[in-house]
């Protein structure tokens, strides 16, 4: 497959990987969907609006359940396998080996620039699939100016889940991802990009590893309560009303952070429950209606890999029992930062806010777009990344 040959001989074990969901798993999923009941009508589920209201509507769930029963998984598998996929063995800070899945587009150019792109929740590496497809139309392997690496976070899809006998956080993810880049031969220098949790990972890579020379972000953890940002807003304090407004957006995150076992077990036992929980986010956090096909592809992968309950561990470091711990994002970032602002982001932080906490050398404010920029606005986001990289890579 073109784009599938690393430019250097990896110093870590790396094997090609093909997604192949067993037929029995597909059959079982459809049987569970068929047997799962739709709850009775209530005022809330008949007046629900995911962007502003009570969440997902009962009518949406009925319609999407029917579409899931007819969903052609084989067509999705073919599309996913059209991109080179790999499994690498990377050691963590305890010298324990982890299996890390990643997709990549490797260039044949000797001076191609390595970029690691990190996803968030409820996403996965597939968030970057539209960008991969755009890049493949624009460049051949011979003239591609970049090496693009998109790993699955530990616990997501085909990457090994975090250990069951110790805590695991963004710093641990960054350690593995830097090890992946080193193992692929990019240990001298690379650039990181990310949104959502991926922005925190990118920030950690830049703060902790000299090889990460610059980062591009399309999300920054909420800055509404930062003292310098309050001044920009003409405020002297972060009020109770501000806190309530924030919590209304992040009620789901409080559940992830404070009762991860409960919600993990609930959503891991019923596919319609999982679809409702994940679908709400794709419907409510995007600036445009993402296709039902997209939502079903992501949800199916979460279900087939039994991933949900091993993907929410980072939330307790923001809102749960581990909140208030040290974070790279709490420190000013000296390395060059590029920032793309999409106005309908879940927690919008305009560039002038981000400049207070990071060395923003490039930014752009878009007129539309939401939380899932790589899915919603792949051409715009990728243009931003290319321009930023062209400015900082010397």
TrEMBL record:
Pfam families noted in UniProt: EHN
Keyword entries, A-Z: Hydrolase
SUPFAM superfamilies named among the record's database cross-references: alpha/beta-Hydrolases
GO molecular function terms noted in the UniProt entry: epoxide hydrolase activity
Presence of keyword Hydrolase: yes
A GO biological process held by the record: epoxide metabolic process
Family: Belongs to the peptidase S33 family.
Protein name: Uncharacterized protein
The species this protein was found in: Kwoniella shandongensis
């Amino acid at each position: 497959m073109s784009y599938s040959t690393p430019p250097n001989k990896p110093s870590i074990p790396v094997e090609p990987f093909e997604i192949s969901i067993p037929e029995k798993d597909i059959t079982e999923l459809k049987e569970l969907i068929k047997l799962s009941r739709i709850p009775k009508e209530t005022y809330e589920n008949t007046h629900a609006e995911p962007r502003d209201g009570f969440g997902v509507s009962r009518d949406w769930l009925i319609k999407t359940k029917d579409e899931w029963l007819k969903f052609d998984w084989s067509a999705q598998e073919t599309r996913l396998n059209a991109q080179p996929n790999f499994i690498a063995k990377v050691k963590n800070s305890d010298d324990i080996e982890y299996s890390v899945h990643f997709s990549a587009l490797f260039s044949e150019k000797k001076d191609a620039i390595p970029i690691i792109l990190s996803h968030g929740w409820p996403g996965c590496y597939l968030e970057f699939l539209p960008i991969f497809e755009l890049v493949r139309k624009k460049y051949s392997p011979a003239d591609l100016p970049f090496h693009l690496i998109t790993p699955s976070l530990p616990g997501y899809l085909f990457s090994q889940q975090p250990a069951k006998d110790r805590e695991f956080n963004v710093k641990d993810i960054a350690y593995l991802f830097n090890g992946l880049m080193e193992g692929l031969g990019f240990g001298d220098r690379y650039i990181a990009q990310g949104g959502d949790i991926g922005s925190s990972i990118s920030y950690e890579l830049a703060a902790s590893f000299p090889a990460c020379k610059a980062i591009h972000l399309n999300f920054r953890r909420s800055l509404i309560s930062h003292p310098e940002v309050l001044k920009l807003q003409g405020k002297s304090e972060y009020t109770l009303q501000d806190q309530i407004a924030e919590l209304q957006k992040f009620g789901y995150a409080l559940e992830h952070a404070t009762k991860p076992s409960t919600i993990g077990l609930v959503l891991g036992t019923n596919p319609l429950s999982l679809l409702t929980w994940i679908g709400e986010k794709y419907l409510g956090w995007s600036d445009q209606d993402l296709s039902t096909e997209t939502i079903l592809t992501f949800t199916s992968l979460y279900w087939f890999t039994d991933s949900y309950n091993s993907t929410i561990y980072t939330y307790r470091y923001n809102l749960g029992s581990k909140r208030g711990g040290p974070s790279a994002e709490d420190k000013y970032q000296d390395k060059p930062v590029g920032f793309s602002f999409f106005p309908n982001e879940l927690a919008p932080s305009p560039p002038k806010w981000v400049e207070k906490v990071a060395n923003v050398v490039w930014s752009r404010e878009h007129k539309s777009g939401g939380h899932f920029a790589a899915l919603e606005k792949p051409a715009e986001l990728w243009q931003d990344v290319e321009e930023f990289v062209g400015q900082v890579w010397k």
